[in-house]
Amino acid sequence: MSDVENLHGMIIFAKVVETLSYTEAAKRLGLSKSSVSKEISALEVRLGTKLLQRTTRKIAVTEVGMTWYHYCARILNEVKSADLFIRQFHEEPTGNLRVVAPVTFGCQCIVPVLNQFVANNLHVSVDLDLTDRPVNLVDDNIDLAIVIRRDRPEHAHCQALIDISWGLYASPDYLQRFPTINKPDDLPRHDFILFRGPAHTISLPFRKDKQKRDIEVRSRFRANNSTALVNSAIACTGIAYLPDYSAQDAVKAGKLVRVLPEWEMDVYTSWILSKSDSFISPRVRLFIEVLQKALQQ
Q1: Domains, in order of start, for the chain
Q2: Is residue 30 exposed (0-12), middle (13-18) or buried (19+ Cβ within 10 Å)?
Q3: pTM, whole model, 2 decimals?
Q4: What totals of helices (H) and strands (E) does the chain contain, helices first?
Q5: Is the pLDDT of residue 87 over 80?
Q6: Residues β-bridged to residue 243
Q7: Would you state the torsion angle of the CA atoms of residues 125, 115, 101, 87, taken in this order, to the nearest 10 degrees?
Q8: Does position 121 have pLDDT exceeding 70, yes or no?
């Protein structure tokens, strides 16, 4: 008994069960009624059991036929899904793309990519929600969420984008006015600007070659937004602990400099989360590809 030979028969049998009509099944499959009848008869011979009870007026499914139908139906659904996948793969991206991203990372790294994506895809519109709050893709009706985590998110469909390194930044004026910083042990004498948290102190990690240090520092200014921390550092309030991307514009402008650049600090990863659907729409699939390429460059 050939599995390939049975596959064709299983699809035909599933249609007969669903319509309880050889004529209707043949019509939906684009076959003749006689070919459907012959295939069912041949299938029953190969299986060695009766699948259908046929009279002049109706078709009844046997008990074994109904059980076997459930297997056939799953195969038919897989065939449909495969066809749908290919159609979607070749479709032009259309519709509304709903994206959520962290505020600063979204403004500096995601918005430029979205701008170019909209320009290149005339039939796609974008709704962007910049927020640092947790989101639920299904409840919030979101196509994609960009998150930043130290570890992989507990989400079925996520892909890594880029690593995000952190560092200490201060204005040149601040560094001239306050004690020189040559090593991590010099840091506790300074004021720090940190992301808002439950405590005013934080232990900063430092790594260089085989050396590892954890230095406890205290903040006088805390905020929940890295742009606010950058501005505070430029104003000489203290030394800011920031993701490197958030400070890069200020560094290029000469308003901030990296403190102890020879030491590595925290590294997080940005992730893109998508819904747990069987297929990703063309607009979502294409934007993921474009975003990954743009950020990696």
Answers
A1: 3-90 (1.10.10.10), 95-163+269-296 (3.40.190.10), 165-268 (3.40.190.10)
A2: exposed
A3: 0.64
A4: 10, 12
A5: no
A6: 166
A7: 50
A8: yes
